[in-house]
Input
Amino acid sequence: MAKTSSESTVAEAVERLKSFVEEKEDMSVEFSEPVTAEAVANLEKKYKLQLPPSYVHFIRTHGTFKVLYGGQELIGMEEPGFLRAAAPDPSDAVDGDDSDVADAINEALFFQRKDDDAVENFWCFNPRDRTPEGELGVVAYNHDETFGLPPLLGTKHANHFRDFSTHIVTVIDDFIETYANE
Output
């Protein structure tokens, strides 16, 4: 089966990341084993929802990854079995006392840590923000900001990407740019 343009773009970004890290002293990237179709089906049953196709393709092709520098994790993806482990307390959210907001936070799937100095910084999928193709909107959560789910897909927001593929390519390219001169 031929790769889609998006899948090729992601594969190229993964290769850029591997090449970049290989050239940096005291930096490494670790990938887990790719996730099986059976494991994906079990995850979808566990979370009671269909995972976004671009994310599924990534974890089935590449697994999850983390980048270490001097032994500290700079960025990393959560193991798929722990996608709900990082949800912030609803009281930290905009309108967190609203039961609908609290429910939305508890439904979010926190799939990737943003940095090493504040493990409370994550990116998450918003299961209420799904395209007809099954993609889920990606939302940033930063520990020093009040968490809130942004307007749904199709609106512009600095930390809101259309799908996982767009998100992960941006994260990799931003990471390389940030650490290029260190």
The first strand starts at residue 27 and ends at 31. Confidence is low (pLDDT under 50) at residues 153-159.
